[in-house]
Specification:
Blueprint lengths: L13 H10 L4 E10 L5 E4 L4 E8 L7 E8 L9 E11 L2 E6 L3 E3 L3 E3 L6 E8 L14 E2 L3 H11 L22 E2 L1
Antiparallel strand pairs: 1-2, 1-5, 3-4, 4-9, 5-6, 7-9, 8-9, 10-11
């Protein structure tokens, strides 16, 4: 559940958001799609003009909590292998527009939809937890190293960028592992 007045709705009051969600007799819905930089998470572009349809699913009991399937126009100017996608929904009523972000997803390579009236591609995505869902093997051996350094090495080898994707607690940064630890 998103707090009612959290960004991107921080310019609205709780009463305004509730009026759109609960009290308005007629609500208009629109959708959008942003491309985020993989490292900084800054918005690179809003590609809503190319966003044709999509769905987002959440399952908190699954290993990867969120997935999406997004249909975009075939001529969308995006490199899906090096960026993240953030779909969003806007609910509007009575002059108030409340935007709700629907997660941030690591996209897969798009598949082309043939035979459509508008040439399109379907992009599947999974939430950023999927970057941590990688087997590291049955055993991992450390040789005379610091625990935090070894954890960082495992995460970096799994493709997780530590500066922006994950923050590690450094309170035990000087804790050393025994000479050989498996």
């Amino acid at each position: 559940m998103q707090p009612l007045t959290a960004p991107p709705r921080d310019g609205l009051t709780q009463a305004q958001v509730l009026s759109v969600l609960r009290d308005a007799p007629a609500v208009e819905y629109s959708r959008g799609l942003e491309v985020l930089d993989l490292k900084s998470l800054n918005v690179i572009a809003d590609i809503s003009d190319w966003f044709l349809s999509g769905q987002v699913a959440r399952d908190c009991d699954a290993t990867v909590h969120g997935t999406c399937s997004l249909v975009v126009a075939a001529d969308v100017p995006v490199d899906f292998t090096a960026q993240l996608l953030r779909p969003y929904m806007v609910c509007s009523a009575g002059g108030v527009a409340a935007r709700f972000n629907c997660g941030v997803y690591v996209p897969s390579v798009p598949t082309t939809n043939f035979g459509e009236s508008v040439p399109s591609m379907t992009v599947a995505g999974s939430d950023r937890l999927s970057q941590l869902d990688r087997p590291v093997g049955d055993a991992y051996t450390m040789f005379d190293a610091h625990y935090l350094t070894e954890v960082q090495n495992v995460l970096i080898s799994a493709g997780v960028l530590l500066n922006h994707d994950l923050v590690l607690d450094g309170t035990a940064v000087d804790a050393a592992a025994p000479l050989l630890k498996t």
